[in-house]
Amino acid sequence: MMKISAFAQEFKYHTVKKGETVYSISKDYNVSEEEIYKYNPDAKNGIEESSKLVIPLAIKDKGMPVKTGSPSLDPVQFKEHLVKKKETLFSLSQQYNVEIDDIKRYNKQLYSKELQKGETIRIPVFRKLDRVVAKPNNTSKEEIRQKFDKSKVREHIVLPKETKYGIARKYGLTVKELEALNPTVDVLQPGLMLRVGTNVSPDPVVLLDKNFKFYEVKPQETLYGLAQRFHVTQDSILALNPIIKEEGLEWGMVLKVPNPEEQDPEDWVVPGLTSEAENLQGEKVNLKDSLSNFSPKNLVFMLPYSLDKIQVDSAGNGAYKQAVLDDRVLRISLDFYSGAKMAMEDAKELGISTRAKVYDTKRSAAEVANLINTNNFNDVDAVIGPFLQSTTEAAAERLRNKNIPVFTPLSDKEMRGSNNLFIARPTQQTMSNTMLDYLRKFGEGKNVIIVSDSKSFEIKNKLIDIFPSARTINAVNGYVSEASLKNVLLPGAQNWVILESSNVGTISSTVAALNRLLREELDITLFTTNKNDSYDNESITNEDLGKLYFHYPSVDKEYNLEVSADFMTKYQEEYGVTPNQYAVRGYDLTMDVLLRLAASEDIYTSFSHYKGFTEYNENKFLYEPQPGGGFRNKAVYILQINPDLTLQIADDSQSNIFREFKD
């Protein structure tokens, strides 16, 4: 039995013995059955001998030093710090050993703006707390062990990238004391259990679980960031850890997360590699290999900040931060530009310098017209933004005579055609058509079943044109029965079920029935051309979709850690948080624009020189002319959810690999 220590909460890792039930275990640990189910949702389906449960223990004094900078402590004094070039909140938190939130708490302006070179901020200095005093270097290992025999029992499970120094510091030990308590441990490995107290087994215990592992939430981490880190959806994290829905995500929580790096590489296609399915949209182009135009690039960002309204509403009442938090469009704009700034910094390392101007559109087409009329756009190479349809159309129309390209990053709406307008987000129709191309290419020889309702007749007809011999099932009153599906599924064949509906009942009943039919050793893969909002309903779980290797089209993918490690590290150092999807899109789109300008004379020439798609952290770009004028991005990913809840780019040209693993 292993104990996991977390901020303000302890857990024990319990191995189920013969005859034990959730009720008996709850009585042994003096916790409720519901508390056990919170951390072990699968236990609701029963527990088996030798299975493992995470048991939450009552909060109590752990004999651990409280982390310096805890909100429960008041600062003893303050230090004044003059901000230097390239310093960030993250770097200052490391330098002074305080939390970023504590720095912001005593420098309110940092909630709404970035650190400025030359400004002076206050750094709180907290009361030093009693810690375990280290023995002199000549203390023997036996003396150290005897000393800790008198302390409380404590164990620690090693997390990825942890060091002996970091673990020792966390528990008030020296490295020598930590090594004396764990004499058989030489090299740290994630999942290894260390003694940081005594009266426990002297031998190290390795946490062995091929599909899942435990992870301790770090300060400033978000649910989106965790989903990106572990290549899963946010719903998957919530499904594995239902306590987040009830208590929110908190620093120090111990979460159950997928462990994809432990999978056998022969069993899976490596995410991120260009597959045959990817080549449906042409070859990938790396513009970094073709840079030739190193003149400074002039970019204009038109973003819907509407700062005038926030300043008026918040003047003198201390509500500026809350006003920012309450304005979703403003938050998205700030996040997008933070990613764009990182792209411009990275482009500089490639020899591409950028002169950028940022204008607030105030979400008004009239203001866009005013900005263009009162500012000089003659040397502008590209405009990124605006976000909204009316302001985007106004910008493209007024800049058309100057032939200045306007890239709108987030909207997929149809807009009035201007030959200089670039819509960077594919339409739902484009995504559906890409999925149809995928099904046409890889569906030959499969037993295809089309499940639909009366509102999906158009896409159903397109599917029947592709698969004339497909079997069809029509939902009745928003329900699909198990019997109707069983009648059309074939043993020994690859059954491809294509589900077309936006009705929650139709989707949930189909997914549930297919999961039950998997018990009959049927080979079933689920597809849709439109993963709409109904799939977010709590009755449709990613666990059930993963068992069916659910395939769907998507604008973006989950980033590849190997590809994006530098970007993620730099962003976290700069802003103290993991970049969200808008920050990543800001980076990817801005980098694509800058590389196109540096690889050709201008944006338009780049499309005649480079015919394939470009790809970055999460997004890829393949612009094609629109009938009404302008260009739209047609690049789409086909993703699949795996049984371990990871996401990857699908490639059923290698479907035999998946079937072998599945069987």
Automatic annotation (TrEMBL):
Keyword Ribonucleoprotein: no
Signal sequence bounds: none
Family annotation (Pfam families): LysM, Peripla_BP_6
Statement: the UniProt record of this protein carries the keyword Transit peptide: no
UniProt keywords, alphabetically: Signal
Occurrences of domain LysM (ranges): 12-55, 79-123, 213-257
Family listed: Belongs to the leucine-binding protein family.
UniProt cross-references to PANTHER family, sorted A to Z: LYSM DOMAIN-CONTAINING GPI-ANCHORED PROTEIN 2, MEMBRANE-BOUND LYTIC MUREIN TRANSGLYCOSYLASE D
Name of the protein in question: LysM peptidoglycan-binding domain-containing protein
Organism expressing this protein natively: Zunongwangia pacifica
